[in-house]
Specification:
By secondary structure, the protein is mostly helical. It has eleven helices and two strands. The chain has a two-stranded antiparallel sheet with strand order 1-2.
Length: 283
């Protein structure tokens, strides 16, 4: 009996290892191809100059700045709203039919195609609220798109904090909000930062939502306000790959490499911060 259990465990381990390899190897291969074909294009001029000659020459600086603006704007709108919504659903709301429907809707919204969010942002922010095609409209659209991710990960992080932490804090005379602020949130921060990492990755890499709400085909200057259009790396990569003829392969892969490095760098910083908070856990 024990021998059979050992064999079953060994087979399961092998199958899990094979599944992991099948997932990781294509990712490594894709990254290797992007680095191999794109690193020759990475120069100071490429990173700091504006596009020239119909985007066949020059750099991608306006697209880099536009991407940073959009990611920062997305987090400004989505992070506070997402965290506060998760706190309410976890700590304050009652378990009834309405809250269960809301939680189900949040989970389902995470799987809505990004083009649907783009059309929603076009109708609400660009046309109805008259923000026009702007950084503000794009950031709000991306914020709505990543909200389900932030709410879900934050809620799971709050649920992972032991109930005894709350009970001890309340028994010592702390209010409900003081308990959440000092006994729950500090221990839930690693999980919240996981949601931030996923939000940054999705916001920085999406093309469809910004296509409808903010992205410009070509801008020879940087945006001056939140009501201006902006170039963005995902859309710029799409344009030079499909709409502009005779763009060198190095420029295409170089643009992809810059986007990849930006996303990985932001994720790395968030992961380092998350690891520091995880070390503070007492359980």
């Amino acid at each position: 009996m024990r021998h059979n259990a050992y064999q079953t465990q060994k087979i399961a381990f092998v199958l899990l290892f094979i599944a992991t390899v099948l997932v990781v190897l294509p990712v490594i291969f894709i990254v290797f191809i992007i680095v191999q074909k794109g690193w020759h294009a990475i120069t100071w001029e490429f990173l700091t100059a504006i596009p020239k000659n119909g985007m066949r020459e020059g750099g991608i600086f306006p697209a880099i700045v536009g991407t940073v603006y959009l990611v920062v704007g997305t987090l400004i709108f989505a992070l506070p709203l997402g965290v506060l919504s998760a706190i309410y659903l976890t700590e304050y709301s009652k378990d009834n039919l309405l809250t269960r429907l809301i939680k189900l809707a949040i989970i389902n919204l995470a799987g809505v195609p990004s083009v649907v969010y783009g059309l929603f942002g076009l109708g609400i922010f660009v046309i109805f609220l008259k923000f026009g095609s702007s950084i503000l409209a794009g950031s709000l659209t991306l914020a709505i798109m990543v909200l389900p991710i932030i709410i879900t990960t934050t809620k799971e992080a709050l649920d992972s904090v032991p109930q005894s932490f709350r009970e001890v804090s309340l028994s010592l005379g702390a209010s409900k909000w003081q308990t959440i602020q000092y006994s729950v949130l500090p221990h839930a921060l690693p999980g919240i930062l996981t949601g931030v990492i996923l939000a940054i990755s999705r916001a920085a890499g999406e093309t469809a939502p910004i296509l409808f709400t903010v992205a410009a085909f070509y801008l020879p200057h940087l945006p001056q306000s939140i009501f201006d259009q902006a170039m963005a790396l995902p859309y710029h990569l799409y344009v030079i790959s499909t709409q502009v003829p005779n763009v060198s392969v190095e420029i295409r892969y170089g643009t992809a490499l810059v986007l990849l490095v930006m996303v990985l760098s932001a994720n790395f910083v968030a992961i380092v911060i998350r690891s520091k908070f995880r070390k503070m856990k007492k359980w």
